[in-house]
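Fig. S4 source data, part A: sequence.
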Amino acid sequence: MTLLFQKKHFDRWIIFFVILFSLFGLLMIFESSNVSAFESFGDKYHFVKDQIVWFFIGICSMVTVSFIPYKKYYFWSLPLLLLTIIFLSAVFIPGISIKAYGARRWMGFGPIGFQPAELAKIALIIYLSAWFSNKEKGRLFSFLLLISLIVGLVILEPDLGTGVIMVAISIMIYFLSGAPLFQFLALIPITALSVFGLIISSSYRLRRLSTFLDPNADPLGASYHIRQILIALGSGGLYGIGLGASKQKYQYLPEATTDSIFAIIGEEFGFIGAVILIILFIIFLYRIFRIAKRAPDKHSFLMASGIFVLFACQFVINLSAIVALLPLTGVPLPFISYGGSSLVISFTAAGILLNISKYMVDKS
């Protein structure tokens, strides 16, 4: 708590929101997992105890990073990027990687599992912010080559949802740095066609797309997941059925603690509770936007903007998938979904924002 007594001003609202969301996430992880945790491990607190450990690691990371002057990332950006590429490559090495649900997205360090793709998000923000803080002509090809390498490794895991978020972050940082508008207009359709090509080239992604287009096609198979999500949201009604009263947590709803956790929130707290959470997250995003707008230089502006896109994309994609506006992607809800790697990286990003906020200037 030393952070609260620093002489330089920083945005305390960032601390308030990340802790609020995380504590609420712990509550909802317990609510959504206690049945499955007891059945699988004989301990209904199994998943929430894991998340509590990551919560405290995340707090330590946020506090530590908040003391690191953001300008130091300019010199650390390249080593961090190279380390990230090594980690992303290592997930394909048997004995190091952990395979689950048909994907290789995790590295194992004894009992600890870590997802390098989460590190790649923040590493990409730090590297691109340092690179594009200086003017440089003819860098489009180099930019596309770098993004193709990193995003390509993530998609090979496979993890298309994270890949899409990384592309969105990269394109926004590139064009906020002052790139020509015509390049932006050219990259958008190219990116959209690339994503569509990746979807139709994979059978499981194609099933998700067909399920999105026709949720009633296979109610006990491919459409089962989204139908259970919609049942949960519909059951919640206006006010919800009450905390702890979820029926979908009784093994009906797949991925109830991770990318589908908002469905449990909607079921127990109803439409009003879900709207309150959305409003709080919009206020949180506004605080990040305010930090970016008042950043002292281009480097910090690009970093804060990249973190804004990171949180905004995850929030929008997760909720859009839950209400059937997008196909299910597996993207977690920031600070709330179960997952240690995502939580720690989110806290780390918040720590970077806190440090930048201490140097904000009045640009009114």
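Fig. S4 source data, part B ends here. Residues 1-7 have pLDDT under 50 and may be disordered.
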